[in-house]
Amino acid sequence: MFCLETVDRVVGTITHQDLGAMTVCLIGCGSNLGQRREQLDQAIELLRYMPGVCVTAVSRYHETRPIGGPLGQEPFLNSAAVLETDLEPAELFSLLEAVENTLHRERNVRWGPRTVDLDMLLYGDVVLETEALTLPHPRMVTRRFVLEPCVEIAGGLRHPTSGFTLAELLDAISSPHSHVAVVGVPGSGAPEVAEIVADITLARLLRAPISLPLVVPSVHDCSQLISKWSEAMMLDEWPDDPHGTVSDFWLGLPLATARRHLTVQDITLVERQLADVGPLVRTPQVILFLESTRPVIVKRLCECDRESEESIVLELDAIMDLQSSLSHAFRKPGHGAVVCINADDLEQAAIDAVAAVEAMA
Questions:
Q1: Model's pTM, two decimal places?
Q2: Is 114 known to be catalytic?
Q3: CA distance 76 to 63
Q4: Residue 48 pLDDT > 90, yes or no?
């Protein structure tokens, strides 16, 4: 779970080579307003009659409490459907919106009540990021209300960026004494958000014993980080806390830093150290990765340490380079359940992070 190889970020480009004649897609369906069951039935029936779409499986309905959004909402009915289609992702997205509009879906409030909600969760093995559409769905990996109906009909489908099957993702968030890592570069707000998440979810808060340095670290620095951080995560000392643990650090960070700045020989030393401690520590089931823009990171770091403002500016390129490296790596298979969160607004980032964790329950 510590393999951090950089890849080019995909923005608006399909990453696999050939979709073939028909692509298997996974759709999440939900309703908490009006006649929920009838509206979901109607949505599926409308999809059955759409050209270029074949509905091959539909899950049972699962009633779930609303996560995030305005208070006082009614419970949801959720289900999932497997489609085969020869439509392109943008075309299928528009078709799903058209079905929602037909059933009087309103989009006034984020995560607000809706007559019907049709989310494109997976489109084959496509990884896509445009202004309108992100594939796979960016928050599905921690949402039990999404994964349970999906696993009922398509548990063997593989999530293209986590590398896990849907059944494996559901198992991960179902683990007792869960570990959620809130991860980010210095200035991302990860410690602040981790504290809020732990406070609201009643989880144990695990702080980094030592902080990731602002300056470019040496191999000794990386080794010390791994040593101190791993001591705090030892399996034989992990508490049986029913509310789980939220940490503000992750053992993959020193390796990511090493890959950007150290020699091949030093990187090998860091990799060996991680390989040695890996079986002994409690790795996170979920990583919440906070990303912030350059001006916001500068402002936060300078507010914390006015005397070091000049050195912060000098090291900023390395900090942003590390964030970019992590962003690319987390969009590549091998890290399990990762949710990327924009953290320019820390209050909103905390709301999103809490929702991601509460959705696991």
A1: 0.89
A2: yes
A3: 6
A4: yes
**Phi then psi for 346, rounded to 5 degrees?**
-65, -35
One-letter amino acid for residue 145 of the chain = F
Q: Return the H-helix or E-strand segment holding 45.
A: helix 36-48
Q: Which of 41, 86, 119, 241 is catalytic?
A: 119
pLDDT tens track for 301-341: 888 765 566 667 778 888 999 999 999 989 888 788 999 99
- Print burial letters for 300-324: b (CB count within 10 Å at least 16), e (below 16): bbbeeeeeeeeebeebbebbbebbe
Per-residue pLDDT tens digits for 235-244: 998 988 889 9
- Confidence category of residue 294, pLDDT binned at 50, 70, 90: very high
15 three-class SS: coil
Q: Is 306 among the catalytic positions?
A: no
Ordered structural domains, the chain, with CATH: 23-124+139-173 (3.30.70.560), 179-358 (3.40.50.300)
List beta partners, residue 26: 82, 122
Q: Please say if 110 is a catalytic residue.
A: no
Contacts of 21 (CB under 8 A, 6+ apart): 86
Cα–Cα dist 155/157, whole Å = 6
